[in-house]
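Residues determine shape. Take a concrete instance:
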Amino acid sequence: MNIHEHQAKALLKEYGVPVAGGVAIFSADEAEAAANSLPGPLYVVKSQIHAGGRGKGKFKELSADAKGGVRLAKSVADVVANAREMLGNTLVTKQTGPAGKQVNRLYIEDGADIARELYLSILVDRTVGRVAFVVSTEGGMDIEAVAEHSPEKIVTLAIDPDTGVTAADIDKLAAALKLEGDAKADSQQLFPALYKAFCDKDMSLLEVNPLIVMADGHLRVLDAKVSFDNNALFRHPDVVALRDTSEEDAKEIEASKFDLAYVALDGNIGCMVNGAGLAMATMDIIKLYGEEPANFLDVGGGASKEKVTAAFKIITADPNVKGILVNIFGGIMRCDIIAEGVVAAVKEVGLKVPLVVRLEGTNVKEGKAILRDSGLNVIPADDLDDAAQKIVKAIKGQ
């Protein structure tokens, strides 16, 4: 689960992390009061969407030369003017895709006098099975670009869970970021505080880009991106309360109600598979034959008829889907349960696109019989390769 920048900063502030003062607003009428509550005279007006690259983004409804989704304002009147222009419009960034995201809230923040921009993130490093810091002196940039062109400028430091962030760890991170004076002193408190927030709240990612050294020599978190482990949300009702469903795909929200692992993609072949590995292989082979998957959908090993029905309905709700591939290897999951769910869903919502079904494993004969006797126009497949070729041909009318 993701949250907005202003929510992330409020959470981090509870751990003593240095952030600027700011106010979230939801209408342009709130902009003047928000700005007047801050010291000024420099303000930053930030679009709050769940996507990066906001500063370089473009609004669909505005002219090509209009400013992006993060803007400097030198007066209260400028804050108000920017708020009126940004709220309600669609911001397109490198992470939103061409559809963009509508800006429904802004964060009016006190400006900062920046001397240096740094990069810092905390994540789970699965290569060593520990939480790790990733830092770089190249703040404010796309970290993937830094990794590609200047990998030597990125330092990763795994933290021993038994000790937490030690004095030696702090020294290593401070050295990697070339911190001196007040900034180095601030890091003594900052790095442990960020690590504690990450662990306490079961985060999966905490990214600060940029972490700045201000003109007065002190550190400040200028931007913050936080994601949480969905499997741990039951422990954090305060975090769940921060969820903004308007930033999420409606199909993914529906899938979460049935505990389905679903991710919407940009392709045209809907996939229903059991098992993450098999789902990835199914998407790969669809691409191999020249088409694109419309989703990742893992119904899991013990799905019920109702769960399978819900999964099928979610796939068919996507207007981009031109064909559906059901690929099931029945171990714990029984093929007859899958077949019953597919038949129930088709009878409820109809079938307007080609459907290819490949079943193998537990109760495969019963499953195939259910589909065969249903009267549905189902294209059977013998194996995954056969299934992929058949669905690609079907959507092309071959």
In short: Residues 114-239 form a domain with the D-amino Acid Aminotransferase; Chain A, domain 1 fold (CATH 3.30.470.20).
